[in-house]
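Practice problem: predict the structure.
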Amino acid sequence: MAKKQSKKQKKKKKSQGTDFLASAHNIWLAGLGAVAAASEEGGKLFNDLVERGKGVEVSLAEPVERAGNSLRGTVKDVQKRAGKTLKSIEVAVDEQVGSALGKIGVPTKDEVAALRRRIEKLTSNLTGGAAKKKTAKRKSTPKKKAAKKAAR
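Answer:
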């Protein structure tokens, strides 16, 4: 059988429920009070924080400026070193590629230019200079046409 609750136990439960509701109500009231205080004091607090921020900004301006200048100098130094390193890498790669091409018999740009000059000289010697005159005429033809058009 179920035991009957005594009057003391019933009173105790009722008292605990009332205490809990009272505590919850007090918490609710405290929250409302905090919101009211924040809305009343919020603007004043915000303005105070702005003023403090201005003071800190002024005191930090010089150190921040020095740090920025130092950083800019460091970046310039790194850029110079990087440029030098890239140039030396480029030269090394050019030398290695040139060496590899030379080993397999591919002529360099200078060698091709020298050969072209020799061929022109030999052609000129064989034709008695006629090839040179033809080349000179071909080069001067566009200039003459341009001069004629300008004269019109």
